[in-house]
Design a protein that fits this description.
- The chain is α/β, with parallel strands linked by helices.
- The chain folds into two domains: about 120 residues, Rossmann fold (3-Layer(aba) Sandwich), CATH 3.40.50.2300; about 90 residues, Winged helix-like DNA-binding domain superfamily/Winged helix DNA-binding domain (Arc Repressor Mutant, subunit A, Orthogonal Bundle), CATH 1.10.10.10.
- About 40% of the residues lie in helices and about 20% in strands.
- The protein has eight helices and twelve strands.
- Strand 4, helix 4 and strand 5 form a beta-alpha-beta unit.
């Protein structure tokens, strides 16, 4: 049984009870908070393995809670899954850029939430691959030292930026990244970020990758991800 300690933050009592019941049934130790102030206090006092964070909270909202948590050395490494009402795409983007690991839209299936929790905890427990080691996934071989990409043994000719984008996404399969996060990783923090510049790179990548381009998935209103391992 799981033993991770998870804080659930939501001002709706029925949602708190629903999530708490399902997490406890899976063996997680659950803490709850119905506002941002309590969430920050609990995160400071308890050794948490994850936070499930609603964006719409009274007082300090979820985005500000995430911002504070990610700015503190003792809490910045705690994974965060955001809960968001449908249509809050701009808030989802902000949350991901602040360092949240995933998001789930309301209304949600408890089974889906549990699966997302497990996936984030699994990713956090795994060390990221050495930046210089080749990545093998879905028939891809991505070699950062040679700057070569093959798909099912066939060499794919990519530009510098296309390679950077593909390597960045493939290192973290299943993670959702905003356009600005992708550009920062490919070009550095001082590069002029535009949504269009990322979209153009993705279009070019998919075209060159052919059928394998389907592994670069669009997350509508948010950004892109490389399909997780099956």
């Amino acid at each position: 049984m799981a033993k991770e300690r998870i804080l659930v933050v939501d001002d709706e009592e029925d949602i708190l009870e629903l999530i708490t019941f399902n997490l406890a049934r899976e063996g997680y130790q659950v803490f709850t908070a119905d506002n941002g102030e309590k969430a920050l206090k609990t995160a400071k006092s308890e050794m948490l393995d994850m936070i499930i964070l609603d964006l719409m909270l009274p007082g300090i909202d979820g985005l500000e809670v995430a911002r504070v948590l990610k700015s503190k050395d003792n809490t910045k490494s705690i994974p965060i899954i955001m809960l968001s009402a449908k249509g809050d795409e701009s808030d989802i983007v902000l949350g991901l850029e602040l360092g949240a690991d995933d998001y789930v839209t309301k209304p949600f299936s408890p089974k889906v939430l549990i699966a997302r929790i497990r996936a984030v905890l699994r990713r956090k427990s795994d060390d990221l691959p050495d930046e210089n080691l080749p990545i093998y996934i879905h028939g891809f071989m991505i070699d950062p030292q040679r700057r070569e990409v093959t798909v099912d043994g066939n060499l794919v000719d990519l530009t510098f930026t296309e390679f950077q984008v593909l390597h960045f996404l493939a290192k973290r399969p299943g993670w959702v990244f905003t356009r600005s996060q992708i550009v920062d990783a490919a070009k550095g923090d001082n590069y002029a970020v535009t949504d269009r510049s990322v979209d153009v790179q993705i279009v070019g990548l998919r075209k060159k990758l052919g059928d394998a381009g389907m592994f670069i998935e669009t997350v509508r209103g948010v950004g892109y991800r490389f399909r997780e391992r099956s």
